[in-house]
Write a structure and sequence with these properties.
Elements: H1 8-52
Length: about 60
């Protein structure tokens, strides 16, 4: 098979699919990094609250009966 045998539209479609895969992996990595950063911030906030002696409890995610 030569380059002339492959339609140009198919090559462009494959390039877009590869780009989407790369973006998906990058997005998942960014989400995981953001989760870690949020957890670090939560721990820092809790340390500040503990230092100030302010009673604080995060919202309970369980439904209220």
């Amino acid at each position: 098979m030569t380059n002339e045998d492959i339609p140009v539209g198919r090559i462009e479609l494959e390039r877009r699919d590869i780009g989407r895969t790369v973006n998906f992996v990058s997005d998942r990595q960014a989400i995981e990094e953001n989760r870690r950063a949020i957890e670090e911030l939560r721990q820092m906030l809790q340390a500040i609250i503990d230092h100030l002696g302010v009673p604080y409890a995060p919202a309970d995610p369980a439904p209220v009966e």
